[in-house]
Amino acid sequence: PQRVKSPLNATYQIKNIACVLAACKVLQHLGWPLKQKNIHTAIQNTPQLTGFQGRWQIIQTKPYIVLDIAHNKQGIQSALQNLKRYSYNTLRIIFGVAKDKEIDDILPLLPKNAIYYITQASVPRAMSAEMLYEKMSSFRLKSPPFPTVSDAIASTLHDAGKNDFILIFGSAFVVADALTHFNSSQK
Questions:
Q1: Exposure pattern of 124-142 as b/e (b: 16+ CB <10 Å)?
Q2: Do the domain assignments include residue 84?
Q3: Residues 105-136: tens digit of each pLDDT
Q4: Is-contact 168 67, C-beta < 8 A?
């Protein structure tokens, strides 16, 4: 088995990378001039080469801040499965969804022991934080609603200790707003 370093940290990415390596091997057998070094370099630089962001993307480690565009049952399950690989004191989840998503099958999956920061993305398709708050309250997942992702991030960072884990997910739009927030705060 080949060892390849990758910034893609989700457990499902291991299977994706294995598939890429197998496909490259087939192409090499068909005469394509693919060099192992180039394949490994491409995998190591996937986010920069493709713009691929928001899939278990680690923003920082003290506290952990991870973005994941998980927005359906399978994606949420996968993201929560990835959480099991980490040790942390408190799980803090910034969560927002699109208003056209059927979330009744997602909400029961969310950890009851997390602290939630309910928010909405800055797009017309976003479910309002107030409506999401109402839906989550019936599952005993309570949080004050935050009108913007940046507001939710600010509150979460204020509350978080360095050994906490902050997961931002529920919608690609929420992750996009989070990326904008973090990119603008680095300037």
A1: eebbebeebbebbeeeebe
A2: yes
A3: 899 999 999 999 999 999 999 999 999 999 99
A4: yes
